[in-house]
Each structure stands twice: as C-alpha cells, then as structure tokens.
Design brief:
Elements: H1 35-43, E1 47-53, E2 60-66, E3 73-76, E4 82-84, E5 94-96, E6 103-105, H2 114-125, H3 139-155, H4 160-182, H5 189-216, H6 226-239, H7 243-254, H8 261-283
Antiparallel strand pairs: 1-2, 3-4, 5-6
Helix pairs in contact: 3-4, 4-5, 5-6, 6-7, 6-8, 7-8
C-alpha cells in the first residue's frame, strides 16, 4: 500500500501522506553547567548572610558567612592549613565594611581599640572606595579582602605575630586558588605560575613575621602558642628551601617535654620530607 490514508479521500481528506506518521522527536538539550557555576551553586548551600554592625563607622551591612556545622573538617596540611570536605570556608573568615574599609578576621572584627579606630579612619577610610562583594566569593575577591585586613592590621599597629598570621592565611588562599584552577579541564599555566609565586611571597612574609614575633612578643598570638609557632617557622623554612634552618626550629619543638602527638607526628613528616629532599639533591 503506497498510502495508508488513500481510503479517506472520499471523506474529503485528500493529498494526505503517511510519510510523516512517525516522527522522531528532538530530544531537549541538557543544560551544561560550567565547573565554576557548579561550584557557586554548591557554595550557596554553605553560606548565609549575617548582619554586622561596624565598630568604626557604625553602619550596618551583611557579610557572607559559613553556616555553623555545615563544613566537615578533614585535617591540616603541614603548614597547618585546614582541610575540609567539598568546600573551603577560608575565603569567608574575614569581614569587610564596604562603607569605611575597616576589615578584620571575623573573630576579632568587633575587638578594635580606640587608637586603631582613629588609625583606620585616618589611613583607610579617607582613601577607601566602597566595594560590594558577591555573596559567593571568588578566590580573587578573597585575596583582595584579606589584603585589606593586612593593611588595616599594618596601619592599626598590630603586632608582628598578627600580621604574620594574616600573611600565612593569604598564602593558603593562593594555594586554594591554584587547586581550584588545577581542577578545571583547561588549565592556565601562566596564571598558575603567577599564583605560586605570590604564595611563596606570603610564605616569606609569614616566616619573617613569625620569627620577629617569637623573639620579641608574648605568646600565644592568635591562638598560636610557643611550640606551635616554632613548628610553623620550621615548616615555612622548609617550604622556602632552607632545610638547615627548618631542622633548627624542629629541634626547638622536640626539645619540649610535652609535645602533643599531632604536632610530634607533623615534626616527623617534615623531617622525612627534608631527608628526601637532601637525598635527591645528593643524587643530582
């Protein structure tokens, strides 16, 4: 049968064709979500907007904050950078007032002396151009915010230990930024190298600041006690390629009679890495 509808011509249905009786429907295209967009959507489940009152200019604003208990701690790297499962809360650990430019680590945002307030108003607020950040922060934005914290700390006369701690956290941010880029299908090698360079710059700053703090300031600082600071200095020295100095500071750590197991284990790990490095250097 050439045309299954031919019998219907007497009913007025002429020129019908059965050629299009069965049509293959076009499947709807699946939405392709970029890796960056996917990360942003995931981040929204960890973040809420916290109302903050600035102790310097008295303005109120909202700041992106990690939900308590939402992130799962996994451990720490050798330089004590915290590791979490699936989400990095570090970018959200500072608060920035987009009215006056005052910025500090969340825990210490409201603890500001009158002397530091005056210094912030004189040196930060007068020059600050207000900027409203996205609710979901990029690493680039996070680095900028932390550097503003560092600037506030510097003009406000904070101790070397506090400034060193901020520098250490900025080095962690640069490392996190590199890791986020390395997870992409297309890698920007030039940018990765640039970020690695910046990471090392802030490792050097942290190393320098912690050494000064250890020699001249009362510990603990920012929760870092004497033993932990000795260890951090040792690990930063190793990262900067100075095994000799690193071993000297590790010696200070193990010289204590009450070294916690977690710190003792890390000292052992750092020593092993130094041995491997020295062995490789001898072979080369």
């Amino acid at each position: 049968m050439d045309n299954i509808f031919k019998d219907l011509e007497e009913l007025g249905f002429k020129n019908l064709s059965d050629a299009d009786l069965f049509q293959e429907k076009e499947q709807p295209k699946k939405k392709v979500i970029s890796k960056e967009k996917e990360e942003q959507l995931k981040a929204q489940t960890y973040i809420y907007q916290r109302k903050v009152d600035c102790p310097v200019c008295k303005h109120s604003f909202h700041s992106s904050t990690v939900r308590s208990g939402r992130v799962r701690f996994q451990g720490t790297e050798l330089d004590l950078r915290p590791q979490y499962v699936g989400f990095d809360p570090l970018p959200y650990d500072v608060t920035v007032c987009n009215y006056c430019g005052y910025a500090a680590i969340n825990k210490y945002f409201k603890n500001i002396s009158e002397k530091k307030k005056r210094a912030v108003i004189e040196n930060i607020t007068r020059n600050y151009i207000g900027h409203k950040y996205n609710e979901i922060l990029t690493y680039e934005e996070s680095v900028e915010r932390y550097k503003l914290v560092l600037l506030n700390s510097a003009v406000g006369g904070d101790s070397n230990g506090i400034k060193a701690y901020i520098c250490l956290k900025i080095s962690w941010l640069y490392r996190g930024w590199q890791e986020s880029l390395q997870a992409l299908e297309q890698k920007d090698d030039a940018l990765l190298q640039k970020l690695k360079t910046y990471e090392i710059v802030f490792v050097e700053k942290a190393f320098e600041g912690f050494k000064l703090a250890y020699a001249t300031e009362k510990l603990p600082i920012m929760g870092i006690d004497e033993m932990t600071m000795e260890y951090i200095i040792a690990e930063l020295a190793r990262r900067l390629g100075d095994s000799k100095i690193s071993k000297q500071w590790l010696g200070k750590v193990i010289g204590h009679s009450d070294v916690p197991k977690r710190l003792r284990d890390k000292v052992y790990d750092v020593k092993e890495l130094i041995k491997e490095h020295e062995k490789k250097s001898q072979q080369d």
